[in-house]
Every structure is written in C-alpha cells, then in structure tokens.
Amino acid sequence: MRKIALDRKRYNVLEITGEWMTVEEVIHRSMEDVLFYEESGGGVTLSGGEPMEQIQFLVELLQKLKEQAIHTAIDTCGFTSRENLKKILPYTDLFLYDLKLMDEAKHIKYTGVSNKKILENLIFLSRQKKKIIIRFPVIPDITDTEKNVTAMIRFIGEMPVRIKEIDLLPYHSIGKQKYARLHKPFQLSGLPDMKKNELLDMKKRFESTGLFVKIGG
Amino acid sequence: MTDRIKKLREQSLNAVNRISAERALLITEFYKTGIDREVSAPVLRAMAFEYILNHKFICINEDELIVGERGPSPKATPTYPEINLHSLEDLEILDKRKKVSFKVDEETRKSYRDKIIPYWKGKSNRDWIMRAMTPEWIEAYTAGLFTEFQEQRAPGHTVCGSKIYRKGMLDLINDVNQARAALDFMNDPNAYDLDEELKGMEIAAGALISYAKRHAEKLKELADQEQNPLRKKELLEMEGVCRNVPSHAPKTFHEALQYYWFVHLGVITEMNPWDSFNPGRLDQHLYPFYKKETEEGSLTKEKATELLESFWVKFNNHPAPPKVGITAEESNTYTDFCLINLGGVKSDGSDAVNELSFLILDVIEEMRILQPSSMVQISRKNPDKFIQRALQIIKTGFGQPSCFNTDSIVQELVRQGKAIEDARNGGASGCVEAGAFGTESYILTGYFNIPKILEITLNDGTDPRTGKKIGIDTGPAESFSSFEELMNAFTLQMNHFINIKIRGNRVIEKLFAERMPVPFLSLLIDDCIANGKDYNAGGTRYNSSYIQGVGLGTITDCLTALKYHVFDKKTIKMKGMLKALRQNFEDFDEFRYELIFNTPKYGNDDDYADEQAKRVFDIYFNAIDGKPTARGGKFRINLLPTTCHVYFGSVINALPDGRKACEPVSEGISPVQGADHNGPTAVLKSAAKIDHLRTGGTLLNQKFTPSFFEDSESIEKLISLIRSYFRMDGHHIQFNVVSADTLRDAQKHPEKYRDLIVRVAGYSDYFNDLGEDLQNEIIKRTEQKGI
Known about the structure:
The complex is a heterodimer.
Chain A: E1 2-6, E2 9-13, H1 23-31, H2 34-40, E3 43-46, H3 55-67, E4 71-76, H4 82-88, E5 94-98, H5 104-111, H6 116-127, E6 131-138, H7 146-157, E7 165-170, H8 176-181, H9 200-207, E8 212-215
Parallel strand pairs in A: 3-4, 4-5, 5-6, 6-7, 7-8
Antiparallel strand pairs in A: 1-2
Chain B: H1 3-14, E1 18-19, H2 22-32, H3 41-55, E2 76-77, H4 88-96, H5 106-120, H6 125-132, H7 135-143, H8 169-181, H9 191-225, H10 229-244, H11 253-270, H12 282-296, H13 301-316, H14 326-330, E3 339-343, H15 355-367, E4 373-378, H16 384-394, E5 402-405, H17 406-415, H18 420-424, E6 427-429, E7 433-435, E8 440-449, H19 450-458, E9 462-463, E10 468-469, H20 483-515, H21 519-524, H22 528-531, E11 542-550, H23 552-568, H24 574-582, H25 589-597, H26 607-624, E12 634-638, H27 644-650, H28 680-687, E13 701-704, H29 712-727, E14 732-737, H30 740-748, E15 757-759, E16 764-766, H31 772-780, E17 783-784
Parallel strand pairs in B: 1-2, 3-4, 4-5, 8-11, 11-12, 13-14, 13-17
Antiparallel strand pairs in B: 5-14, 6-7, 9-10, 15-16
Helix pairs in contact in B: 1-13, 2-3, 2-5, 3-9, 6-20, 8-9, 9-10, 11-13, 12-15, 13-15, 15-16, 16-29, 19-20, 20-26, 23-26, 30-31
C-alpha cells in the first residue's frame, strides 16, 4: 500500500512491488544503459531475493546478456545445487557471495538451513577461477563474534584460488518496514543500526590477511 | 589563504550593495554641455567614457594587490541613465525590497530627483526602445510571452580573447590609425562612418591609459605616506604595473591580471552590458607568464595564488547593476555572470589542461565566493584527473564549477560557420552560452515562454489571464480532432510570437548600433578595428543573436498528457481538460493525480514523452535559427532560464501536465521538478534526445545529496556519468549538492545559512538572496539518492 499526499488529499494505492517481465523485456531495458556500462566499466547485476531460484530464466537471461557483451554479476547466498551453478558459470563474470555464519548449528538456528552446501559451492567457484567478492553482513552479537570472524578468515584463506575482496555490510533496519507490510514480527527490533566507523577494527583485521575491504556496498 | 586575502574576502562579503550616483551624475554633467549635438555617436560615447574615467573617484582598498573599482567603493554600483532611467519609485523598491536590495542613501535620491531624472526623462535608450515597439510587441511582452534583455541593459555578451596579452592600448591605437589611413574617402560611401568609429576607439583607448595613470599617481601618494616598508614596496610595484599596463602589452603575471582588470572596468563603465565581461580561458592566457616566471624564480606558486585570489575578490565587489520590473524577475540576482573557463582544447585541438588549470581550481575551492563564476571545459582530450579535481570541489556544494562539453561547443560553433581555430579558442560564458571568444558578438535578446504558447493555443489566441486576444486564430481547441491538428495550431502560434520578438529585436539592434555604440569594447573584439565598425553594429568577425527558450520539460509533459489522455487513451475529452485547467483542477483532484502519477513524463528515458521534446525543439529551432539579424548576423537558439522559469510560470494558468496556476515552469532542459523517477541515467538519456549541436547552449541541473559523495567511488561514478552524457553530445551539466532538509532549514533560519550558495540555473547564488518561490523550486528539484 503506497500512501501519496496530493493537495491535502491522501491516496492509498495498492501496488504489487515488481512486475512480470520476459527475458526480452529485461534485455531491452538493460540495453538502454549500455553507454553508461561502457564508460564506467559496469554492467547488469542479478539479485533478489535469490536469483538462483529462477534458474531457467536466469540462464537464458545471462546467455543473452553475454551475447550483447554486457558484464554480468550474480548476487547470491550460495544455497543452490552444484548443477545450477554449473549452468550459469559460463555466462557470469562476477559473483557477489554471501557468507554469514561459519558454525553449522548457528547457521541452522538463524537461517533455517545448513551452510554445508554454501561453503562447498564457494570452494567450487573459487576453483573455477571466477571473480568473487564476499559479502559479510555484520550483525551485532550474531555474526560479529570473535569466533565467527576467525573461522571466516581461516576459511577464506584456505580457498584454492585466492579471494581478493570482501564487503562488510553494517547492520541496518531498513527492512523493518517490509516485515510490517507483510504483517510479520520483526525479531531484531531492539537492535540499533550500525555505523560505518564501528567496523573499522574489523576492516583492519581482514585487511591484515591481504584482503581488499570495503565497508558498505 | 594569506591574512591579506582573508581580510579582502571578508571586506567583500560584508560590503553593502548600494547604488552610487557617481557615474549618473558625471554622464549627466557631460551631456548637459550640449556636446551631443556637435559630434558623431561613437565619438560622443568615447568622450563620455573618457569624461567618466577622468573624473570618477579612484578607490584603492587597503592591502589589495589588484586595483580598480567600478564605483567609489566595493559594491557601490553605478547606474546608466542613458540606457535605463530609474524613477524615484524604482529607487525606493531597490532600497526596500527583501531580496537583492541596493541601498539608496538620501544624497543619491536627491541627485536623482534634482539632476538625473530631469535631464534623462524620456531620453534614455529604453524610452527610445519602448517608443519604437509595436503595440503587438508591447502586448506580448506585458503578457509574459518573452522578455527583452536590452530594455535595461546594453547588448554586450562577449568574452575577451588573447589579444590584450599581446597588445597594449598604444598598439591598438596604432592599429586604429592604420585602419583610418586605409579608408578610401573617394570611393567608399561608408568611409565617414568608419572613420568616426575609429576616432571613437582611439579616444577610448587613450581614456583607459589615463585611468590607469590616475591609479599610478594615487598609489605613489599612498606609498609616500606608507609606514610599513613591505606595503610601501608593494604599492610602488603596483604603481609600476599601472604605468606599464594597459599602455603596453603585459610583461608579467601581475601585469596581465591588472591589465585584464582595467579592461573589465572599461567595458562595464562604458555601458552596462548583460553578462558584464569575462577573461574567458584564464588558464590559457596566463600560463605563458606563469611558466616563465616560476621557472626563472621571479614568481612562486604562493605569490601567484595570492595574486589570483586578489583578482578573484575584485569580481565579487561588483554586483550586477540593478534591474527593476520584468527584467528583475527574469534574473533577480547580484551575479553578473562572469564565467571563467578552465580546460578545454587549444586552437590546434590538443589538450589545454595545464598546471595553472589546477592552481585556479584550488583558488576557486579556497575562495568560495559568489563571483566570479567558474566552469571546467571537458573534452575527450582532457584527462580524467581534471574532472576528478573539479568534482571534489563540486562535492563541497557551493555550486561551482559547472561542467561543459568542449567537443559539443566546438561542433556547435563550427555548424554556425566559425573557423575551427576560433571555435576551439572559444567556450561558454554567462550561464551556458557558447561563443568564439575574442571574435564573436553573441548577444542574448531575451527569454521565450514556450509553455505559454500552448496556453494561448488552447485558448484560440486569447490569453486567459487577461482575456486579451494577442495570438492568431487557430480554432477552438475542442475542434481539434487529432493531436496533429493541435501541433499545427501550436506551431502557428509559436511562429506568430517568435516573429513579433524577432521584429522587435531587429529594431532594438538598430537603435543600439546607431545611438549607443561601444567604441571601447570594439577595441577588444576582432575584427572591429579592421572593419572600422562597432561591436553593436556588426563589426565583429561573427555575429549571433539568441532567443533563449524556457520550459522544455513542462511543454513536453503537457503535450504528452494531451496526446495520452485526450487523443490516445481518451480518458477525457478536450472540453473536460480545458474545464479542469480553467478551474485550476478544483473538483478535478483524481484527474490531476492521474496527470502527475500515471502519465508518461520527460526525464525517464520514455520515448512516448521524449518524442514531444524533440518535436518542440524542432518547431522552436525552425522558427528562429538562421534568420538574419539587423547587424548582419544570424538568430540562434539556446535553452536556459536563469530565474525566468519562475516569472514565466507566474503568468500562466494551470497546464495539462498537472501544474497549477502560477507555479514555476521547468528550468533549462531539466525535467519538471519531481517528474524524473528513473534515476540520473534516464534523465541524461532524455536530455540527450534533443539535438544539442544545433543550439548555442543547453542547461541541465542535477541534484545530489551530500551523503552520495561520502564514497571516493562516487566521484568515479560521476566522472563516468559526465563522460557518458558528453558522449551523447550533451552541452552542459551542473550539480547541486545540498540536502533538501538543509534547504528547508535555511528557509526557517536564514541567519544560520548566510554563506549557503546553491546552484540556480547556470550560476550560483546565495540561497538567502533567492525569492521564496525560487527557493521552494530548488528544494523540489529531484534529489538523486544514488546511481
């Protein structure tokens, strides 16, 4: 429900956020900004949700994007089958790969699923020599523990082909409104947003292992 | 910043803008001798110029390095009664108005009442102009179809080239005498006129030399009295400079700056040209001096910086001469539009960015004052690090420098018939106007209210605000059975009013050529001396006259709405639309919602809307481009508003894009405030669909909040954005970097924001000096949260 005020009248507009599109329509929209991709070295990033959940569409789309010589990136949590990963591999230039919790039990507790597949898929991608940027959502007392960070550093250090870059994502509660709109409880409602400068120490730690670290992004 | 500069800057910021009657009194005295009945117009004007320069107060401010003020003190602004005579009511308004006021003391008022008004009443050039305009013109002008620059300001609008760095006034006098000697009195019917003009030029050149000498003498006096040995030495140096220039070509960096400054004062003392004057490609002109002297050790980087900053303060001491009435609303600002150019290409086409380009950018960043304006010319030949440096300054949010596309400017000028070297030596001045510096007279003649043409069309030639029939018959709008019929009617009304404007322009041009020549300015711009003809009479190598179109975003959205709702989707009949407009959308709230939120809009890379932008562009272009002016040049178009989008909006009722009566129309070629919702890349793509290369300048504003610039990555992204827009031949883009919250706070607590400068439209201004309408309009301009 979008609320719009115009001339002291309020309009409540029921909207579906998002629209159905065919592969052709997505290609068409993407081509409109080709000039900007060329000038900036950018391209198209497929995100979500989880793009791997629409694997057929994704493969077709990535294929067509590569036919147009557009740079492609996938933003994924890695919880997918090896088969699916293999399908998109030839058409993906960059993986933005989430790592949250290294301990399996904790991972199940907070996400509902095991992290085994996620970690194995990452090793697989690394072996394929794909460009990977790790995305680490830093959530106070949950993912930013000493134990988790140490384990993550070790895990990244053991990659068959070196991973060079990690983004530290400071916790924010912008998603709170989505929960309200879906009439679901927001369980972290007491937690304040993190500020970028709170991550400076963590940044140094990751940097000392040779990683290029960005806060945010 | 040295202490001296801090002091001079402070003095400039604190000086009160006021009217000085000095020039008006001097010129009245001069004309009262009756000499205007004894000599030709150019000789008369040159002698008047000489009289003023010989008698005005020589102001030398404490601790300054570059000398010369327009009036008796900083921000004491002269008037030009021979061009436009202020009445006592006008002076009262200037003194009392809240925004852009000029204090008028009792003595000034008395001078006006007792001496100036009695002499000039009915005799000013403005009176001549108004008497010469047709009733049609007066009606259209009063209704707000267009404005007329020259009713209160002299034509001007040009930029200094490289000539003064090679030739002193004595050399120019030599050139003048050679031209006189070459005249053929036996066969050339114009020989007498040319000779008189050249005589005037010689008198004017001599006048500037003696003006400089008066400064030298005063400096010597001050040096004799000076206790501080350092300052004494400085004053004697400055005396030396004032004896060398402008008689001779400058030999040092310091002399070059002082020479330009004397020339600047000359141009704005002779008359009050719109857009004052401008040193143009400063980094190019000064570089040989800078290089030579820093290499031999006679100039350090610090000293050069101090001289430049002393030079910078001078511009800030000169608010634009006050306007009243319509002209005030079309550009109500203290800024006199001196737009310094950095970067670009040299005449051989190579990268012109040099060490001085970066040094001057440092000066701009450090000085952070309203005037002069500044911009960077960006060519594909210039390095990214030049843009990067400019963006670091833009990021600080004071609205300078703006960004221009050299490669487009060169193509625009060459299309108009300029030689490529002249085009490359040019750039943009004023707000965004392209010109061949040093060789072109490219006069702006006034703004044109494009959305109002639609209003007149929808009312079959009548102005609904007054009920007067000022347009032609094109039939009642309800009778249009297709969008094409509407467009035909629109085209006819557009042509009708453009022709009224052009006809008026041609007469005004003649009046200036005959009654108000500018022999001093003519010395500076080629080829006036060689031709023996005045700058206002077609003496320059290139001559252009511009009519600036306003409201492209608004008109596009209006035509799109009409096509979409009335003709394609048939949501409403024309009759219903007209009713909604007449009632200012009263009882039509839902429909207005549709118009605003569910109708295609310009600025979103949506061809359905952008097609209309192209269409209007072509109509406007075809009505104007290439038509002959009275002085032998051609009419051209550009698209910029200064602040006129607010005035023009105030004379239009509700429009089909959902805009309510009297609200501002869109500015430059930017989308209607708030209509763009697909991000900056979509705005640029829409803006690039019109053919910039067929204009003499377009203006595009984009607003970013400071939070967007926190990343160093964002600067890289903006470089790409600029390069992308320029690849599409975009002419210009400028960035406003303030948060809407800051601006809203500044409205509530102006006292906390006295230094808040924002980009308006082609220039920056103090937010506090802007009218509330314009302030609200800037706040509304779309904020881009991130690419």
